[in-house]
Amino acid sequence: MKRLVTILGFVALAAVTPSGAGSRVVTIEPAATGTLAFFPVFDILRLQGGDLQSTCFVTTDQNLEWRRSFFEFELPVPARRIVRATLIITETNGVFVPTPLPTDVHEVSAYPGDLVVDLSDYDAPTLPVGTIETDPNDDPNPHSFELDVTRAIRQLRKDAVGFRIKLQVDPDAPCVEVGTAGSEFGGPFFYPPTLRLEVRSGPKD
Q1: 106: which of 55, 69, 83, 166 is 20 to 30 A away, CA to CA?
Q2: What distance in Å separates the CA atoms of residue 196 and residue 167, rounded to the nearest whole number?
Q3: Quick check: helix, strand or coil at residue 156?
Q4: CATH code (residue 78)
Q5: Which DSSP state fits 40?
Q6: Model-level pTM?
């Protein structure tokens, strides 16, 4: 079963809806997305493209690979005017695995964004915002998760915010004996992550 385990804490305007008195709700899509792949045995780090993956892969002692996904949003208002921020991410693995396998726990964290996903983001310091759990034995239809990221955005106090998804076992624990663990979370064109903001009205609203 997919479930939310814990919660701590180009801009595309997808929707603007009224909220409480003196506020409105704005939903935005990322300005930049990408997955970074690291091969620790060879000390190779490379950008895999826009699709978002939080996985590991191994078939021999030499080809261990960790993948972390990154996506960054340009905030439409200063962080101080954000009453509540909700990150919505959708698992899009699309593969049913009949053999019983353990669930995977993914850490979601935030960092100051620059609207570019590059190699420097891989080990950049982040603020934890929560974890999600995916199950390879569940049906392959898309599953969405919502995390409250208000505290992280307020702490960062930046015009842009980035988010990272990685396996909880990355990089200190073994991946699997043989094969792949983890899942995928959409991309820039299909099921992109979104950020839903309740914004307090200001002088220009």
Answers
A1: 83
A2: 24
A3: helix
A4: 2.60.120.230
A5: T
A6: 0.87
Burial class of residue 143 (count of CB atoms within 10 Å of its CB; 0-12, 13-18, 19+)? buried
Please give the tally of structural domains in the chain: 1
Three-state DSSP state, 150 = helix
User: Residue written as tokens 């991946």?
Assistant: 175
* CA dist list (Å): 48 to 63, 82, 84, 205: 16, 32, 32, 39
pLDDT of 74-123, one tens digit each? Answer: 999 999 999 999 999 999 986 667 788 889 999 999 999 999 999 999 99
Beta bridge partners of 160: 74
- H-assigned helices in the chain: 150-156
Task: Give strand pairing partners of 196.
Answer: 27, 86
Domain, as residue range, for 31: 3-200
Number of Cβ within 10 Å of residue 115's Cβ equals 15
DSSP code at position 99:
S
Task: Kindly report the number of other CB atoms within 10 A of residue 51's CB atom.
Answer: 18
Question: Do 40 and 57 form a contact (C-beta atoms < 8 A)?
Answer: no
Residue 205 lies in a domain: no
Q: What average pLDDT does the chain have?
A: 87
If we measure between CA atoms, which residue out of 191, 36, 38, 166 comes closest to residue 105?
166
Between CA 199 and CA 42 the distance in angstroms is: 46
Residue at 109: amino acid letter: S
Q: How many Å is the Cα radius of gyration of the chain?
A: 17
